[in-house]
Amino acid sequence: MRQFNYSELRNQKWDSEIVGLIAAIYKEVGKQELFLKQRPDDLEKLVEIAKVQSTEASNAIEGIVTTNTRLKQLVEEKTTPKNRNEQEIAGYRDALNIIHESFDAIPISQNYILQLHKIMYSHLNNPMAGRTKSVQNYISATYPDGRTETLFTPLAPYETPAALDSICDEYNRVIGNMEVEPLIAIPIFIHDFLCIHPFNDGNGRMSRLLTTLLLYRNGFYVGKYISLEAKIAKNKDLYYDALSQAQNGWHEGKEDSLPFIKYLLGTILSAYKDFEERFSLVEVKLTALEMVRRATQTRIGRFNKQDIRELCPSLSLSSVEGALRKLVETGELKREGQGKLTCYYRIN
Fold this sequence. Notes:
By secondary structure, the chain is mainly alpha-helical. Helix content is about 60%, strand content about 5%. It folds into 2 domains: about 15-280, Fic-like fold; about 285-345, Arc Repressor Mutant, subunit A.
């Protein structure tokens, strides 16, 4: 069976790109701490938006979708699930809420990972909820001509419980002893989790929940305000490419994990940059028109009213719509399309 020894990571020489990403993330962490002290109430609106986006994106990556209205109602617990997709979405919401509220009381162990998996399926009658896989699973690709190719074969079911225990033990040891930088240990743990693929179903969504949990437990709270899942979904081809590259030789312990580490660190840094941009719009008291004007000035190409509302969480949808209408009337913006297809772009 594959052996794990995270202590070996401390002897590895990391290239300048990884060192630079880690330094940049820590710089952003310091900025965020100052921001949170200045305007905590305004930033709570970013939390609400991020929860909706995270729940939507992590499920959408797996083809689990519902309407925008239903999604928002489910995340805000203002309705009950109507079908299987909505039951899966509600379960993800519940697991994400627990991580948001109690991350410091959720140890990294097989038992707690199984509990999170069970919560994720709590709205479904799934006999495998909270249990490791019972059959061999495969990571495969389906091509436009219908051809299917197996890209990676995870561990066998009988090897899975011991492997899950092992990566948890290794992670806890090197983090507890401060042997390995957390921003290195976290991607390694998530990559190993995905290669083990411990469940019959829900491995991708669990990996994203665990990424958020591990980051929170190490003081990286950006996922609370900016959806990491949404950033992964937006560039999911890059995510799958990085994962595929890092899986080669994994069973023999000869994998090159650098592509996945760089991908995840780049995603985290991008989220921190987004946070800084959105904070700048709530940092000073502005009129709705001026706030929307500044938000549009950060956009390149076409954008819609939802893009602007995400940047201006303190404004109601009607305020955003009114400000966009005025900017069109004054000639600062050009509007295209109608209804849900309406988009805008700056003229100068």
